[in-house]
Amino acid sequence: MKTAIVTDSTAYIPKELRDKWNIHMIPLNVIFGNEVYQEEENISSIEFFEEVRNRPLPTTSQPPVGQFAELFERLGEEYDAVISIHLSSGISGTYQGAVTAAGMVENVKVYPYDSDISCMVQGFYALEAAELSEAGVEPEGIIRRLDEMKQSVRAYFMVDDLSNLQRGGRLSSAQAFVGSLLQVKPLLHFVDKKIVPFEKIRTRKKAMKRIADLLGEDAASGEEYKAVIIHANREQEAIEWREELQAEYPNVEFLIGYFGAVIGTHLGEGAMGMGWVKK
Length: 279
Hints:
The protein is α/β, with parallel strands linked by helices. It has helices at residues 15-21, 45-54, 65-76, 94-102, 119-134, 139-150, 163-168, 204-219, 235-248, 261-267; strands spanning 3-8, 23-26, 29-32, 35-38, 59-61, 81-86, 109-114, 154-158, 185-191, 194-201, 225-231, 252-258, 272-278.
């Protein structure tokens, strides 16, 4: 059985990796006034952060259901099944769009999958699924492996302030930080598919150390992990952090990812995070 792997643009899997593993990508949109950009297609993360310095903050939107249905139908000409892996349904309707489209196509069996998260941690699921698909694993077996991964996935991120998240309605329990936004670097994570506060930390440096310590708690088991450092237009800082962490945690393989246009709209420039999963 041939199984196609689909994910959305917020997985931020570099194009060369998508091409290598034959991962199909459906883009979300950022909208500046009357101009609609498909992220990762006609606006890169670097272009996005340059754009927002000079313009009001854009809005974002999920792919139209028809775009999903069209992709699934096209894949059905070549594949027997599609696993469609998407960002958390608690912060976007993208997964639900895939579910709706799956019910509209008849030439292929579609398995929509809610990653409960986003960015390159979501990308880990897509890459794992693509490797298993290439190895000939049936769709149900791939889904079981993704569910197994979910048990060890962790991700934490820090924003310079919460204003974008609050404005976009992507943050629950934001009142926990009201009155202290200027004094702290909020550390956030996903719980039950939604972004919620984890801890209030005083400085950026301490917030990053706290994230590293949380990784250390898991890595102390000696088991092998894969981790990704995710930055919002802070590549050099991410590279330096990776060098420090690689020396400290030899059983962890570190990648560098990024917050692209859609997630960057809600987190703002300067955000930094890290996610990891047991290999």
